[in-house]
Amino acid sequence: MTVLYLSYDGMLEPLGESQVVSYVLGLARTHRITLMSYEKARDARDGARRRRMEERLRSRGIAWIPLRYHKWPSLLATGWDALRGLLRGAVVCRKHRVRVIHARGYVASAIGLCLKRLCGARLVFDMRGFWADEKVDAGHWRPDALLYRVAKRWERRLFEEADAIVSLTRAGVKAFASLGYDIPAATAIEVIPTCTDVTRFAPGPKDQALLNQLRLSHRRVIVGCVGTLSNWYLREPTLRYLALLARRLEAAILCVTQEDHARLRADALAAGVPEAQLRITRAAFDAMPAFVRLMDLGVFFVKPSFSKRASAATKLGELLATGVPVVINDGIGDSGEVVRAHRAGIVLPDVTPPLCEASVEEVRAIVFDPTCRERCRRVAQRYFNLEDGIRKYRELYRRLQPAETTGWSAAIPRQIPREAPTEEADAPS
User: In whole angstroms, what is the distance from residue 352 CA to residue 295 CA?
Assistant: First the structure.
């Protein structure tokens, strides 16, 4: 069966490589995959990296269609991108008799919905969170803005017309009822979190050469931040908490990010992180596990809101798979429930200064707990294992596959995802 996979994220970006390429490489073992993505200009200009990605995908039989991403003016640029994707996708659907369109995110899913109507394929709406509300919560859109209203109209159509909906969290599925949409009983609903390749992100000794390069060899405790600290991440509270740990635990602070380093350094120093204990660096996708293994604790705080009920940070699985406990705030998807139930870190009810101060001794205990790393690893293998995610997508494709080439199968019964298991249920069944 041929699957058209649509992503508005680029495959040459770290997110696309981690959360799309890793999946389609596995799915290509059992399905013919055509991958259409939108690449940023700066990434597309790197010819060597593009050729490596083309060869990597081609070697697994994946046909890659990289389109150019346009950013400005926002609504017109997105509309132009969608039109180009629709025209190119229609050719692919007709030529290769595509049976399933797997659309990752809202823009890709809007294209996928149009292709479903044109070509009769089944649509997987892989929502990745309540995107329109995330834009408002992050301060990019106003709730009365045209972009938000347009996005919400498309959201209704996607929920009501998709053949399958994939949510990152169970909390997100529970929130569907509050949207007021008429989701058909036949719509398949599945929970598949942002998964991690646990063979890449695995515990191991700290790389001494890397420690020397970062001037961290003499530091007993290294507290890390991975990825962005912007948008809906709580930048100032996170930096203040890092400053607290630097002061109370004499910890080094290591930020591995593609963000503006000069601005981040200035913000970190303003928040009280001592300059002598601060390291900010970048890492290529392949090098990330080695950087994460340097860390004794990972920290990230996200702005709690309705939209974040359906969110799952990629960095959570990567940190836990590497055996690194985390400090996070509560109310973000299923993350707090999982971390708390399995003692894989600390979940703060809020990020107020008194609660942050009160957590320091608990942080000290968990950092020096010799059993914690293995506990974190088990959590990642249970909840965020990439192979489990691939298996769930593969099963979803199978359920959507038409019974015969001349017509579609009967209605697919809804499957309500089971509750997250408690710690007592952790024993093998």
Answer: 24
